[in-house]
Structure formats: C-alpha cells, structure tokens
Design a protein that fits this description.
The complex is a heterodimer of chains A (544) and B (332).
Chain A: H1 2-34, E1 42-47, H2 62-71, E2 76-78, E3 84-86, E4 89-95, E5 100-105, H3 119-130, E6 145-152, E7 155-160, H4 167-170, H5 179-182, E8 202-208, E9 212-217, E10 230-235, H6 239-248, E11 253-255, H7 258-264, H8 268-273, E12 274-276, E13 279-280, E14 283-289, H9 299-308, H10 311-319, E15 323-325, H11 348-357, E16 370-371, E17 374-375, E18 377-383, H12 387-402, E19 406-412, H13 414-422, E20 429-435, H14 443-446, H15 464-475, H16 479-496, E21 499-507, E22 509-512
Parallel strand pairs in A: 1-10, 18-19, 18-20
Antiparallel strand pairs in A: 2-3, 4-5, 5-7, 6-7, 8-9, 9-10, 11-22, 12-22, 13-21, 14-20, 14-21, 15-21, 16-17
Helix pairs in contact in A: 9-11, 10-12, 15-16
Chain B: H1 2-31, H2 38-41, H3 49-59, H4 65-77, H5 92-97, H6 100-127, H7 132-146, H8 149-163, H9 183-221, H10 224-231, H11 236-258, H12 268-273, H13 279-288, H14 292-320, H15 322-331
Helix pairs in contact in B: 1-14, 6-7, 6-9, 7-9, 8-9, 9-11, 10-11, 13-14, 14-15
Classes of the chains: A alpha+beta (544), B mainly alpha (332).
Chain lengths: 544, 332
C-alpha cells in the first residue's frame, strides 16, 4: 500500500517534470522562432541528372530549371498557396477584358553584373522567345501576343489578340533576359548558357559537367539576401549511391523513393539527423485508352475497367500508401479540383455487369470474355525503366484477369515508344503520367483539335462540350467563373473515363535537420528556400 | 625502303576503311526510331508543330541523309566535329575532351592494377598447375568476373564509406576546400576517391588476363629451351621469370594492344554508380537523346584508335618477327 503511494507520487513527479520539460522546450522553440535567423552554411542537394542549359527558355529539363530558377526571376511568381503574386513586377493591371496587361516593375533592381534592370530586358526576352531562330519550346504562349512594348523603363505593356487567361503566369522567369549581355548575339552560343548572369537570390559560381553546380548567395538580392551562403547541386545518377551519400553526410537534401521513405529512413540515425516531408507532387499517373480501338469506343467498357481495379490497392502496393487516388486530371489540393465527380471504387460485380451490357460474354468458357468471336485481350504499353509504372501494370493485369479481360504488358524504350507507337497511334492502351502546371488550362491534352500527329491528345478524345469549355476557360479571367468551367470539365471526364485516372504520388524530400524555416505548403517546400537558415552553432560548412 | 612503302600502303589502306566505318555508322544511327528533338519536344505541351519544324531545320534534319552525311564529312576534313544537338549546343570536341582525362586515368590505373595482379597470379597458377592454389585462384577470379559490378560497388561503398567511414562514397574530389588544398593534399584527395572505382573496374578484368597468362605460360614451360635452361642448372626463379615469362607475354601484348581503344571508352553503369563524369555517361545520354554529332564524334575517335592500334600491331610484328619482314621483301 505504502509502496504503491510512493510510486504513484514519483509517477506524478515524473509527469510534472515531463510537463515542465515540455513547456521549456516549447519556450525554447518560441525563443528560437523569434530569434533572428543566422547567415552562413551551405546546402548540398542531390540530383539524378545534370543541367543542360542555364538560359531558362532554351532548357527543357527539370535540373536546368531548378538551377536557373535560383538565378533568374520573372515578372510574376506563385506563392506558397499557388496564387500568382508580383516578383519583378510590383503590380499589374488587366484591361479590355483581358486583352491588355500592364506590368509596373520594381525600381532599383540590378543584374548581378551591376547593370540596372528595366522593362527593356523584358521586351528583349519576349523578342528573343518569339524569334524563329531561338530554339525554345516555350514560344507557344507568346505567339498569342499581338504587341508588346516598353513605354518607360518601369512599365511593360502587352496586348493579346484575344483574352488569354494563362497569359499572366507565362511572364515568369523564362522570359526575362539581360539585354546588355545578349543583344545582337546568337543566344545558343552565348556564354550565359554555362555562366548565367541573372538578378535572382543566387549567383552562378561554377559548373563542372556531370559533377556539380555551385551557386553563391547574391548579397544585393532585391528581396533580401538569402541566409544560406552557398547552394551546391551534386549530380549522382544512381539513386542507391545518392542514398548512401546522404547517409555518409555528403548530401543534405534529396528526394526519397517510397521504400526509402517508409523503411530505410526509419532508423534512429535518420530520425536524429534528418527531417522528412511529404506533399502531393505535381503529377498523376493514368491508364489511357486508344479511343479509336473497337474495344474502347464504348464508354461502358472503360468504366468497367475502372471499376475492375482497386486503385487503393495500387497505391498501397506501388507507393506504399504515399499517394492519393486520382479522380481527374488535377491534384486534390488545387483550387480548381472538383471533389464531387463520379468515382470508381473497386467493384468487380459492377464491372462485369457493364461489360455484359456492352456485349462482352464468356461464350466459349475459357475465362476470357469475348464478343463476335473476338477475345477481350489487349496490350498495355509503358516506358522502360519506370518500376512504378511496371508494378502498376502488373496489379491492373491481375485484377482485369479476374473480370475476364486479358491484359499483356510491354515495355519500350522512351523514344521508340513515342515515335513508333504513340505518334503512329499503334497502341491499345498505355500507362503514362502527366506533369501538372499551376494553371488549370489543359487545352493541349483534351481538345479535339489536338489529336493530330505529335499532338498530346493522342488517345483521340473528342467531346464537344469539353472543347467549348476548354476554349472558354482560356478566355475567362474571373477565378470563380473559371473554377465552374473546370469543375464541369472534370465531371465530364470522370463520366467518360477516356483515361482511368490512377494516382497522384507524393513528393518525399528529406532534408538535414540543421536547416530551419522549412514550411510545407500546397506549393511544396522550396518556395521559401531563400529564408531557410542554420543556427550558427550547427553550421557545417564555412564559406570563406 | 621496302618498309616505308609497306607503311604508306597500310596507312592509305586505312582511309577507305575509316570512311566505310563512318558511313555505315551514320546511316545505321539514323535508322533508330526517334529524333534528336524527341527529349525536348515530345510530350511537351508548349511545343508547337512550327517549333518542331524550326528545330529540325536548325539541326539540318530536314535535308536528305546523304546531304547530312556530306556536311558532316566536310566538317571532319576541317577537323570540326560539329555541335551537339542537346540544348547546350556545345562543340562536340569540347564535350568529349572535358571527360577524357578522368576516363583515361581510371582505365589506365585499372589496367595497371589488372596486370600487376593477374600476371603473377597466372604465372604461379601455371607453375603449380592443378594445385590447390591454382584451383582456389581460378574460382576467385571467376567469382570476381561473374559478380555484377554495380553490386560489388554498392557493397564496398556501404562498407568503406558508411560502416567504417574510411573512403568517400562517390565523386572525384572533396566537396569543400578542394581549391585551397596543396598539391600533395590534392593528390591524396584524388587517390582516396579513386580507390573504389579503380578496384571495382579492375576486378572484372582479372579473370581474363590471369587465364591468358596461365595458358600461355603452360605452353612455354613445355618448350625444350625451358628444359635446357633447367638442365643448365639455372635457379627456378630465373627460369620462370627471365626465360619463360618473357616469351609467354608476347601474346598478351597483342591483347593489350587491342584494348587501347577501350581506354577512352567508359562503362555507363560503373560511372553512374560512382558519379564519375566520364565518357560512358556522355555516350549513354547521347544515345538516349539521339545526339548524332556526339555519337559520331566518339565513333571517329574510337575508330581512329582501333585502326592505329591495328597498324601499330602490324608494324610491331614486322619489326619483331624476321619472317614477316623477309616475306615482305620477297614480294617486291
């Protein structure tokens, strides 16, 4: 009895002590939160591929844009909630129903070589991007422009042939170039390709091909000097090596695979030294049908296939649960995402019923459905080397077999896949993914005018209402009206199932614990990179 | 005099061979599906058909194949390998040149390591034919030959880089402060980074060379002059290393000559694993991106080295073997 009292007394003491401990740690955190962040240290980032070209409009790969994004700025940018806000532009006016945009630029901004930034640089960038001699993949949006002019150094005016809603967002970092360094030169042979001069938070330091790229903080950055002195990107093509470098201390930041996230980083070492983050990536994976093929012309067949597979099972099996079910061509945390569309939960009975309605029956008793003597057997194509898509295909294959559909899987090298199969329409179904933009415009993928050779509506989807809405969406600036338009498009796509939308995977970055100030948001984590910092006593690298 | 004529004839004979190689490669390369713009343009919503045509015209892909080849050949005559089709549009020679030193360095070091280990191994295995040593080393070198390089590399990284923390995991030099190091420290830094890659690229080659040495040695040891040497009462060491090995090495020199072009080639798997910016990775990405000028540039270098290697071997034989020389003179 007595002993019990003592032990409970100690227990209470312990709990009290624990509470005191908790409150002091909270306090400490509060203090550090108010503490002024320290300058210094470097961050070492791992990348699978090397950059190709550091002039943003000439590059198409993610690494080049990641580096160039720290060196260059645009007139506008996306904030943490994916709203468009001013960057080099202080403000803007949209006139004549969206036909005319006037940007008012910041004053006192300088290029990293000291020359002042003016509207001439924007005009120069615009003229360069629409110049037929410039090998850029981004001219499309700018060909909608009727006239662009720089009436004074801090005003830039652009007039469109017709109102074009994605216009505003196109004035990002791709189109602002230093006129004084590039005028009259062949941009493809410019030294800026490998030694960029921008006006962003970081300045170029060195680039050793296929080895690393280093950037230094720009002390004169108009939005305040970044806290981290240096940004180093190491190119490590092999994911297993990259993970070992992380463990050995040679990397501070990399993207993890689901297995690495769930299992391999679940050790005391990683919990102590690293922080893991997760957010929905800007992409989705889908099973797309060739709608010209007799099997897939019938909407009921496509719906049946969507019912026949368990998308949650795919996410569990392929992504270890680190993803969400896709219901349409957008990710669920976007403002234009419609959660109330027709869904296709796992329902093999429904699948069989729909197939029977469409005339598919197993008349010869071999376990495979048939119709007019043709067995329901098709091949799904996917690109080689993507193990996630391969596993997805296998799970779908297994589930479709259960409702009497035979699906074969074939993997192809990327270029051959695109040229010999997609472009020539020689496919029955594909498993592929799309990267998502921050704007809801998906005209290029779903409009019936985009079914020609080399165009992106390769499945041949044609729907008059979707066509009309896609055009309307491009002409509408009002956010609420736009939202309604894209909500309706998602409803139609969910009903038609031209793709079976499979999943939106999560991005799984891991970052060393010494970095403070990282705040995950719908935009991901890197939107406030220049505000990340390391306390003085934890700094690892001394930058001279 | 006869020798110089022989040499000139051989060199002239190489020109059509070389042209044939480039011609066939050029056309075969274009048979592969896809085009250089594929990676930049395919599935890019912002890419319009006009833009695609523009790019094709800039690369000269809109012209017939023989025109493209003639243009490429014209550049080659002026020692210009052209510019890469990748977005950086750099000169092909610059792209290859910056990767050559590290590739050659690793290949030469690994070649030296292979020779240093496999020759004594082969000699001993031949001298102690069918002994336990012979059998054990045979099994070991074949295990090393059969083990996948990437797997060995990862195990060694885990052991030396993480568990024991003795060597860096990947890369070529230290992340910070390399510029401030003294020459000695730089050499030390390089050496630490090169140990694992050189070792891993060498172990696969041990089997071949030690086996060649062994069989060549066995043949020589059966010759009469070895019996003579032994009968003279020479110490066994002198018999084996001075009399036998010298003769046994002759065929090995041919094999080494053939591996000269291999010195500038790299292995993409092994370079990717160790994150080494070598020729192998460049070629791999050039193949994937259908970057024809870079591929042709590399091919030209490899072809020239191979042809030169053959020529040198011929000259070497002629110089060493009196029978070939006299044969030549009799023909004239």
């Amino acid at each position: 009895m007595r002993r019990g009292r003592i032990s409970s007394f100690f227990h209470i003491l312990f709990v009290l002590a624990y509470f005191i401990y908790l409150s002091t740690t909270c306090l400490a955190e509060d203090v550090s939160g108010q503490e002024r962040p320290a300058y210094g240290d470097a961050i070492v980032v791992g990348s699978i591929g090397d950059a190709s070209n550091l002039i943003p409009m000439l590059a198409t790969d993610a690494t080049s844009h990641e580096i160039a994004g720290l060196i260059y700025n645009g007139l506008v940018k996306y904030d943490k909630y994916l709203n468009l806000v001013g960057d080099l532009a202080k403000s803007w006016e949209i006139k004549r129903g969206g036909k005319e945009i006037i940007f008012h630029l910041r004053k006192g901004v300088r290029w990293q070589d000291g020359v002042p930034f003016t509207s001439k640089d924007v005009l120069f960038g615009f003229k360069t991007i629409i110049d037929p001699k410039t090998p850029t993949a981004y001219a499309g949006d700018f060909l909608e422009v009727e006239k662009a002019e720089a009436p004074d150094p801090y005003t830039f005016r652009v007039i469109y042939k017709e109102p074009f809603a994605p216009a505003l967002s196109s004035w990002g970092d791709i189109v602002v170039l230093p006129e004084h360094l590039l005028k009259g030169k062949d941009i493809t042979k410019s030294s800026l390709v490998r030694h960029p001069v921008g006006l962003g938070p970081y300045k170029f330091r060195l680039w050793k091909t296929q080895e690393r790229i280093e950037l230094d903080a720009n002390p004169d950055y108009f939005d305040g000097r970044p806290y981290l002195d240096r940004y180093i990107m190491r190119i490590i093509p092999d994911p297993a090596t990259m993970f070992m470098e992380l463990k050995a201390g040679g990397l501070d930041w990399m993207g993890l695979s689901p297995v690495q996230y769930k299992r391999q980083t679940n050790t005391p070492f990683f919990r102590k030294n690293f922080r893991k983050y997760r957010y929905l990536s800007f992409s989705y994976t889908y099973l797309g049908y060739n709608l010209r093929h007799p099997f897939f012309k019938d909407k009921r067949v496509r719906q049946a296939i969507s019912y026949a597979m368990d998308k949650k099972e795919i996410i569990r099996g392929v992504l270890l649960g680190l993803g969400v079910v896709a219901t349409g061509p957008y990710k669920p945390d976007a403002w234009f995402y419609n959660p109330n569309v027709r869904r296709y939960p796992y329902d093999p009975k429904m699948a069989r019923r729909l197939l029977a309605e469409a005339g598919w029956k197993d008349s010869d008793g071999d376990g495979i459905l048939d119709k007019d003597g043709i067995a329901f057997s098709f091949t799904v194509l996917t690109n080689q080397g993507n193990s996630l898509r391969d596993k997805t295909a296998q799970i779908i294959q297994y589930r479709l077999r259960q409702v009497g559909i035979e699906m074969k899987i074939r993997q192809l090298e990327w270029t051959a896949f695109i040229n010999d199969f997609i472009d020539k329409r020689r496919f029955e179904a594909v498993i592929l993914g799309w990267t998502l933009g921050q704007d809801p415009d998906i005209f290029d993928i779903w409009h019936s005018s985009k079914t020609g050779p080399k165009q992106l509506n390769f499945i041949g989807y044609k729907n008059k209402e979707v066509d009309r809405l896609l055009v309307l969406g491009r002409r509408t600036f009002d956010r609420e009206k736009r939202k309604k338009i894209y909500f309706r498009i998602q409803e139609i796509l969910a009903e038609d199932q031209p793709y079976t939308f499979l999943y939106v995977p999560m991005a799984l970055p891991i970052i060393h614990a010494r970095f403070h100030g990282i705040k995950p948001a719908p935009a991901g984590i890197s939107y406030n990179f220049i505000r990340w910092w390391v306390p003085k006593n934890e700094q690892k690298y001394i930058i001279p | 005099m006869g020798f110089i004529v022989f040499l000139l004839k051989r060199i002239l004979g190489l020109v059509p061979t070389f042209l044939g190689i480039t011609l066939i490669s050029f056309f075969v390369m274009h048979l592969a599906p896809g085009e250089p713009m594929s990676l930049q343009a395919d599935f890019n919503p912002k890419m319009t058909p006009e833009m695609r045509q523009r790019l094709r015209a800039q690369y000269g892909l809109d012209k017939p194949l023989y025109v493209q080849y003639a243009k490429w050949l014209k550049g080659l005559v002026q020692l210009d390998l052209g510019r890469s089709f990748s977005p950086d549009r750099r000169k092909v020679w610059d792209k290859i040149r910056e990767r050559l030193p590290v590739t050659i360095l690793i290949n030469v070091l690994s070649m030296l390591l292979i020779l240093a280990v496999s020759i004594p191994l082969g000699v001993r295995a031949a001298v102690w034919e069918n002994s336990l040593f012979d059998q054990v080393t045979t099994v070991l070198v074949f295990l090393a030959y059969a083990a996948p390089a990437f797997w060995v590399a990862l195990l060694l990284m885990l052991l030396f880089g993480i568990e024991w923390n003795l060597l860096p995991v990947s890369g070529l030099h230290s992340l910070m402060g390399y510029e401030q190091m003294s020459l000695f420290e730089k050499v030390l830094d390089w050496s630490k980074h090169l140990i694992l890659p050189v070792f891993v690229s060498a172990i696969g080659g041990l089997a071949g060379f030690s086996r060649y040495t062994r069989s060549s040695m066995l043949e020589v040891l059966r010759q009469d002059y070895i019996t003579t040497a032994r009968a003279k009462g020479l110490p066994e060491r002198v018999v084996i290393y001075r009399h036998a090995l010298r003769n046994a090495l002759l065929p090995l020199i041919t094999i080494m000559g053939l591996s000269i072009p291999g010195l500038i080639g790299g292995s993409v798997i092994f370079e990717s694993i160790f994150a080494i910016p070598g020729v192998g990775q460049l070629m791999w990405s050039a193949v994937m991106a259908r970057d024809y000028p870079v591929l042709m540039g590399n091919l030209v270098i490899v072809a020239i080295l191979t042809l030169l290697g053959n020529l040198l071997a011929d000259i070497g034989y002629a110089a060493v073997d009196p029978r070939i020389r006299t044969g030549l003179q009799e023909q004239e």
